[in-house]
Design brief:
Blueprint lengths: L3 E8 L6 H10 L12 E10 L2 E10 L9 H5 L4 E7 L3 H5 L1 H9 L7 E6 L11 H10 L4 E4 L8 H16 L9 E2 L1
Parallel strand pairs: 1-3, 1-4, 4-5, 5-6, 6-7
Antiparallel strand pairs: 2-3
Length: 182
């Protein structure tokens, strides 16, 4: 029996690391030759927060443009989102507004955290930390964090922080209490 079942959506450009992020959090594993997501992949994770039993339903949506028409259906019922870009790929960063526009075209309203993925590749970085922070602020997102699915850096912090934000909105009716920043 769960006190809450929370749907979390992970979205962003193809190759940004969405499946790797989900696998690192769910299974604590990193696979170098991850297959391309077709449509959506979902998994569940059980958590405890403030004495509440929570089931996270976590899905990552394909970044391929040809499936973008499915995106509004995918976000239906979501209570939290992770917009992921690759810190080594300026193009993935430049598409942040495209992804947010796709969500604004739906009736769903939920907190979104901007995440710079692949932080272990700092020597190949194209997007600075400050640019990520500025993008999150200018788009009214709930926070910004960088993480590495390869090393696991900040992955648990990301999901626990987002879960707290979602729970505060639903359980405690405090929609503006927290944001994520590391």
């Amino acid at each position: 029996m769960y006190d809450l079942i929370l749907k979390v959506v992970i979205f962003g450009d193809a190759g940004s690391g969405k499946t790797s992020l989900r696998r690192r959090f769910m299974r604590n594993e990193f696979v170098t030759d991850s297959r391309k997501t077709i449509g959506v992949d979902f998994e569940t994770e059980d958590l405890k927060l403030a004495g509440k039993a929570i089931k996270l339903l976590i899905g990552d949506f394909t970044g391929d443009k040809k499936f973008r028409f499915m995106f509004p259906e995918y976000v239906y019922g979501a209570v939290g989102g992770i917009l992921l870009y690759d810190i080594t790929n300026d193009t993935s960063f430049s598409h942040i507004s495209d992804w947010l526009s796709a969500i604004q075209g739906t009736k769903e309203q939920f907190p979104i955290v901007l995440v710079g993925g692949k932080s272990d590749l700092d020597d190949l970085r194209e997007i600075t930390w400050d640019e990520g922070v500025d993008a999150a602020k200018s788009n009214g997102l709930k926070g910004f964090i960088e993480c590495s699915s390869k090393t696991g850096e900040n992955v648990k912090d990301l999901f626990s922080g987002l879960t707290k934000i979602m729970a505060n909105r639903i359980i405690f009716d405090k929609p503006n209490v927290q944001s994520i920043s590391v």
